[in-house]
């Protein structure tokens, strides 16, 4: 930035100035002093260019439009004005210029929200984030986002608001409306014979009306079995049964989503009914670069496709991955999503139940257990510090579910038998129990036991130190072909922890079929979970589905969406390692001296 003086006659208002293109501001309060003493405070300016070359002595005012207007008015009135002080900004720093103009106006008098939106939109386009804008103007990020929401409005609505023909409450509700709803509202506004919906009336008009126009249907009206009514002119028609409409609309929406995925979009996300798509929180990204499609669904049945978007964070990651790939570095160039398929508590629930089933079966397969034990000894793991997995789910419901599952009961029985062999406490983990003589004392005890009993103890030890949520659980479970249906049935904790609407809809498709799932596509998670439970319990006239195991828990595990699911990723990673692997036959390992059946006899536990 440089200080200088300039002739006001060679200065104009910059397009970056908030007053550009608007009527001349009122300068009656400062014109007398400028006519008498000239301009005392510097104006922020940028140099003018012609054919890429600086035009000497000519400047565009970024901040100081009122001072320039007053000075030029005095010159026009015949008053001689001295050259005015200026601060020349560096070329190309348009974002700083926009900020300077907005800051000056905020300090003098808060501009209307539309002017602020125009300035904020320029800053976003020039690379500023909403957080940076909030810090610069001492606002909360929520205020900045609310201001940017004005970008959802049609230009005429912004003009009406700026002219104070529409109040704040109405304009903020209209930011939630689709473009077609805004056009319809303007048509009502222009019609003197119709009352314009405002306030609560506008909210009901936007979201609560039961009248659904047939033009919003994604399906063919020829195949619709319900009644349709039309106005006297036949220009508009409506569905009389909203429930029947939504059944067909959801099925058509599901088909639309599948068609978009088939076209090559990385993901298609159906928003909850009534939730608007916030374009200012996303960046445009082409299909080839991993862009997604968002389908917004209004309460009046209108479906709007927003094609080629990613969240700002996903877009940055996609660009970074593409740059990395362009440099020839390893790594996938596609974008990654921020939201996983399951919650943290649900992931713990899945990991712990899977580990419980693996170690329950593993304890009866001593040859496999020995090899897994040796693998831990050689390669190590984050648990291989001679301690047992604490089996904490971070959630009381997860812990209660694990405590009562059949797999844990079976493993505790096997652990009690191993503890009896060592003279250890059967109610505690073997690993970590302090004994006289330490490891040497345990070693001496093991020397007196036959190989089969040593292997039985080893199987319990590896079961205790097998990390929940690890690749080792996946590898052992896949190799042993564990059937989770033998150890697990859907319980209250499983349903309570489910939060993902898309995943629950996919489960509903598994148990109830595609027609049921598509017909409830936009229903709340709670409603879809209730229908899922009806199928599993055989209630509310739903056919009972017996022995269902979700893909989250099977070996190998599977996902219900295209979003990240750690368990499925681990299953996929270990599959190539196990391909073609077979245990030596016959395995020269005799059966253990004491073992338990799949359903242990309580009398044996009492004897142990």
Element layout with pairings:
Layout: E1 2-6, E2 11-13, H1 31-37, E3 43-50, E4 53-63, H2 65-76, E5 84-88, H3 94-108, H4 113-125, H5 130-136, H6 141-148, H7 155-162, H8 168-174, H9 179-190, H10 199-208, E6 212-213, E7 228-230, E8 237-239, H11 242-262, E9 268-270, E10 282-284, E11 292-297, E12 303-311, H12 312-326, H13 344-362, H14 366-379, H15 396-403, H16 406-422, H17 438-447, H18 451-465, H19 471-480, H20 492-497, H21 501-512, H22 514-519, H23 525-537, H24 566-578, H25 602-607
Parallel strand pairs: 2-4, 3-5, 9-11
Antiparallel strand pairs: 1-5, 3-4, 6-8, 7-8, 10-12, 11-12
Helix pairs in contact: 3-4, 5-6, 13-15, 13-16, 13-18, 13-19, 14-18, 16-18, 19-24, 21-23
Write a concise keyword list for the protein shown above.
about 600 residues; alpha/beta; 5-stranded mixed beta sheet; 4-stranded mixed beta sheet; 25 helices; 12 strands
What do these coordinates show?
The chain is built from 25 helices and twelve strands. The protein has helices spanning 31-37, 65-76, 94-108, 113-125, 130-136, 141-148, 155-162, 168-174, 179-190, 199-208, 242-262, 312-326, 344-362, 366-379, 396-403, 406-422, 438-447, 451-465, 471-480, 492-497, 501-512, 514-519, 525-537, 566-578, 602-607; strands spanning 2-6, 11-13, 43-50, 53-63, 84-88, 212-213, 228-230, 237-239, 268-270, 282-284, 292-297, 303-311. Mean pLDDT is 82; it is low at 106-110 and 596-608. By secondary structure, the chain is α/β, with parallel strands linked by helices. It has a five-stranded mixed beta sheet with strand order 1-5-3-4-2. The chain has a four-stranded mixed beta sheet with strand order 9-11-12-10. Strands 6-8-7 form a three-stranded antiparallel beta sheet, with no helix packed on it.
């Amino acid at each position: 930035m440089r200080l200088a003086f300039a002739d006001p006659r060679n200065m104009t208002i910059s397009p970056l100035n908030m007053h550009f293109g608007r009527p001349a501001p009122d300068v009656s309060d400062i014109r007398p002093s400028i006519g008498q003493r000239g301009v005392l405070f510097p104006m922020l300016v940028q140099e003018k260019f012609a054919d890429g070359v600086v035009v000497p002595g000519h400047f565009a005012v970024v901040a100081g439009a009122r001072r320039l207007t007053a000075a030029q008015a005095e010159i026009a009135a015949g008053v001689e004005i001295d050259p005015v002080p200026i601060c020349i900004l560096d070329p190309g720093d348009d974002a700083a210029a926009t900020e300077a103009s907005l800051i000056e106006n905020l300090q003098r008098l808060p501009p209307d929200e539309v002017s602020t939106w125009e300035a904020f939109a320029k800053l976003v386009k020039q690379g500023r984030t909403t957080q940076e804008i909030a810090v610069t103007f001492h606002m909360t990020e929520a205020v900045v986002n609310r201001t940017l929401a004005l970008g959802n409005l049609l230009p005429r609505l912004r003009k009406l608001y700026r002219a104070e023909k529409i109040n704040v409450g109405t304009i903020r509700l209209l930011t939630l409306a689709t473009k077609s709803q805004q056009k319809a509202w303007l048509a009502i506004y222009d019609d003197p014979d119709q009352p314009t919906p405002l306030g609560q009336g506008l909210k009901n008009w936007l979201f609560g009306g039961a009248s659904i126009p047939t033009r919003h249907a994604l399906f063919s009206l020829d195949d619709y079995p319900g009644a349709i009514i039309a106005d006297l002119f036949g220009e508009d028609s409506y569905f009389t049964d909203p429930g029947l409409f939504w059944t067909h609309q959801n099925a058509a929406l599901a088909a639309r989503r599948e068609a978009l995925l088939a076209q090559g979009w990385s993901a298609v996300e159906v928003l909850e009914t009534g939730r608007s798509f916030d374009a200012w929180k996303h960046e445009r990204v082409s299909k080839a670069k991993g862009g997604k499609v968002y389908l917004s669904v209004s309460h009046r049945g209108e479906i709007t496709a927003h094609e080629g978007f990613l969240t700002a964070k996903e877009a940055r990651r996609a660009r970074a991955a593409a740059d990395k790939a362009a440099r020839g570095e390893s790594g996938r160039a596609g974008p990654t999503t921020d939201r996983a398929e399951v919650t943290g508590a649900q992931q713990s629930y899945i990991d712990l139940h899977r580990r419980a089933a693996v170690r329950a079966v593993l304890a009866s397969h001593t040859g496999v257990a020995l090899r897994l034990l040796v693998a831990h000894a050689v390669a190590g793991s984050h648990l291989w510090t001679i301690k047992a997995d604490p089996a904490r789910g971070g959630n009381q419901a997860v812990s209660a579910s694990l405590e009562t599952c059949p797999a844990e009961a079976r493993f505790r029985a096997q652990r009690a038998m191993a503890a009896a062999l060592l003279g250890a406490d059967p109610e505690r983990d073997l690993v970590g129990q302090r004994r006289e003589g330490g490891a040497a004392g345990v070693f001496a005890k093991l020397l007196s036991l036959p190989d089969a009993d040593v292997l039985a103890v080893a199987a319990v030890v590896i079961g205790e130190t097998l990390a929940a949520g690890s690749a080792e659980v996946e590898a052992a479970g896949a190799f042993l072909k564990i059937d989770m249906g033998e150890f697990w049935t859907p319980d209250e904790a499983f349903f309570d922890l489910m939060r993902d609407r898309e995943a629950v809809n996919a489960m509903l498709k598994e148990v109830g079929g595609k027609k049921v799932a598509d017909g409830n596509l936009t229903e709340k998670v709670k409603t879809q979970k209730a229908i899922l439970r009806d199928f599993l319990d055989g209630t509310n006239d739903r056919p009972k589905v017996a022995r269902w195991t979700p893909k989250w828990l099977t070996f190998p595990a599977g996902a219900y969406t295209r979003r990240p699911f750690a368990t499925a990723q681990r299953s996929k990673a270990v599959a190539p390692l196990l391909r073609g692997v077979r245990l030596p036959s016959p395995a020269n390992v005799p059966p253990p001296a004491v073992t338990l059946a799949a359903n242990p006899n309580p009398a044996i536990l009492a004897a142990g």
